[in-house]
Amino acid sequence: MQVTMLFHESPEGFAARTAGGAEGEAFWGAWRAYAGALNEAGIVRGGNALMPPATGVIVKRRGDAPQVLDGPYAETKEQLGGYIVIEVADMDAAIAWAARCPAAATGAVEIRPVLPMNG
């Protein structure tokens, strides 16, 4: 089964992405190790890190006119920081991989099965 793991990171996690020195190396070192383990297992099907929420917009359409809202949007501390699509045997395997994710320690990892597209 394919699942998408959505990484919800804390503001501190987003700040660590661009921090120098030991803080930045600790952040990226943990992510490199995690991504390496996923790749070594051969289960990665895609994914990307995302820029901080303040760099994005939300677009809604009400009637004929689009409404554009600048980020951040959610009324929560954690924001979507990235995602990886993996292929695993079952949800238990996906949970095991999510528990190993660096974001699980300071934010959260949401797991959603991918909806198969017929056609």
Strand-residue proportion: 25-35%
Please state the structural category: alpha+beta
Question: For the terminal residues, how far apart are their CA atoms?
Answer: 18 Å
- Stretches where pLDDT is under 50 for at least 5 consecutive residues are none
Q: Number of DSSP helices?
A: 4
Given this structure, which CATH class is correct?
A: Alpha Beta
What order do the SSEs take from the amino end to the carboxyl end, as H and E?
EHHEEEEHHE
Overall pLDDT, averaged?
Answer: 90
What fraction, in percent, of the residue positions are helical? 25-40%
Read across the widest sheet, the strand sequence of neighbours is 2-5-1-6
The CATH level-2 architecture is identified as: 2-Layer Sandwich
What composes the largest sheet?
4 strands, antiparallel
Principal-axes geometry comes out as flat
Number of separate structural domains: 1
At the fourth CATH level, what is the homologous superfamily? Dimeric alpha+beta barrel
Give the C-alpha Rg: 16 Å
User: Could you give the count of β-strands?
Assistant: 6
According to CATH, the fold-level topology is: Alpha-Beta Plaits
Written overview of the protein:
This is YCII-related domain-containing protein. This protein has 119 residues and is α+β, with helices and mostly antiparallel strands. It has one domain: Alpha-Beta Plaits (2-Layer Sandwich), CATH 3.30.70.1060. The protein has 4 helices and 6 strands. It has helices at 11-18, 21-41, 91-100, 102-106; strands at residues 2-9, 44-49, 57-62, 65-70, 79-87, 108-113. The protein has a 4-stranded antiparallel sheet with strand order 2-5-1-6. Strands 3-4 form a two-stranded antiparallel ribbon. A hairpin with a 2-residue loop joins β3 and β4. α1 (11-18) packs across α2 (21-41).
